[in-house]
Amino acid sequence: MPMPLPFDKLEYSRILQASGVPQAQAEAHADALSYALSEPVLLSSDLTILKAEILA
Question: What is the domain range of residue 14?
Fold first, then answer.
C-alpha cells in the first residue's frame, strides 16, 4: 500500500493566489495535484517482478 505524501491543499492554493492565480483556478490546481499525489506510483505486481529478477 503506498504511503500518502503530505500535501496541504489550502496552503498550496494560497501560494498560487498570492502569485496572481485566480482563486477558482488555484483551487482546481490544488485538487488536481492532491489527486495525482494520492495515486500509487508503483504497483505491487511491479515489485513482484523486480524481486523475481533480483533473485534470479
Answer: 9-55
